[in-house]
Amino acid sequence: MKPDLFIYPYKWDERRPYQDGMLLFVPEYYQEHVAFGRLRLEQVFENQNPVYVEFCSGNGEWIIERALENPDVNWIAVEKQFRRAKQIFSKAKRAGLKNLFIVTGEALTFTRYYLNDSAITKTFVNFPDPWPKDRHAKHRLIQAPFAKELSRILIPNEKSLFVTDHPTYAQQMIAVMQEDEAFTASHPKPYFITDRENYGSSYFKNLWNRLGRTIHYIEYVNGS
Ligand SMILES: C[S@@+](CC[C@H](N)C(=O)[O-])C[C@H]1O[C@@H](n2cnc3c(N)ncnc32)[C@H](O)[C@@H]1O
Predict the structure, then answer these.
(1) Is 129 a catalytic residue?
(2) End-to-end Cα separation, the chain, in angstroms
């Protein structure tokens, strides 16, 4: 499919999950996700390579670089804003990537209904929206239900990484993951590090680096 043809595949009142090759549309305000069935990732990628997922991919800078550098890994980008998913799609096309599957949809919904148990080798959440006001904190992605889904989809002893510049959200991520009995912190208290060699760049990582913000890398192993 050419990037120009990457348009919403249905009208709002006809919304449904829709897959076109390496693209999946996961509709919002929709109750029938179960009927679509969970993805058979060996069929999607046509190989049995490990699958790494990045949630909240934004314009895709980080995951496109990773997919190019690691052709023996299958990558899934999950981004709820259609406009940004389209940017990822255009970049993937230009780069000729065959190992990137792009999901236009909400992270918890996609994880819960479209990924099988123990199907994923690593997950990454890079700079998720911090929802800094207290009254908006309920919208943050990293909460107990999402942690539960991460432990279900991750292969035992594999890892989940969260990256944020936002100190309050970092503390929430740590509290959520400490509370989930399936996970163990990779780093000793305070359970984060502030540098990770060769991590790669993203729009927001570059922005917060320029502004001198501390980056928190919070990693948990799926196994206690
Ligand atoms: C602050 S941006 C970070 C983008 C990118 N990771 C980066 O580092 O440049 C957060 C992105 O997450 C997306 N997002 C927020 N909540 C989401 C959710 N629940 N599911 C999927 N994407 C989400 C937003 O649309 C936005 O593109």
Answers:
(1) yes
(2) 44
Residue 36 to residue 17: CA distance in whole angstroms: 7
Q: CB of 84 closer than 6 A to ligand 1?
A: yes
CA gap 171, 43 in Å, rounded: 38
The contacts of residue 26 (CB under 8 Å, 6+ apart) are: 17, 33, 103, 104, 105, 106, 109, 110, 113, 114
What is d(CA 70, CA 19) in angstroms, rounded to the nearest whole number?
Answer: 24
**Cα gap 109→189, rounded to integer Å:** 31
Give the separation between CA 16 and CA 91, rounded to whole angstroms. 26
Does 9 reside within a domain? no
* pTM score of the predicted model: 0.96
- CATH number of the domain bearing residue 47: 3.40.50.150
pLDDT in tens, 120-143: 999 999 999 999 888 999 999 999
Please state whether beta strands 74-79 and 100-104 pair in parallel, antiparallel, or not at all (unpaired): parallel
Q: Has residue 13 been placed in a domain?
A: no
109 in contact with ligand 1, CB cutoff 6 A: no
Nearest CA to 2 out of 112, 120, 86 is that of 86
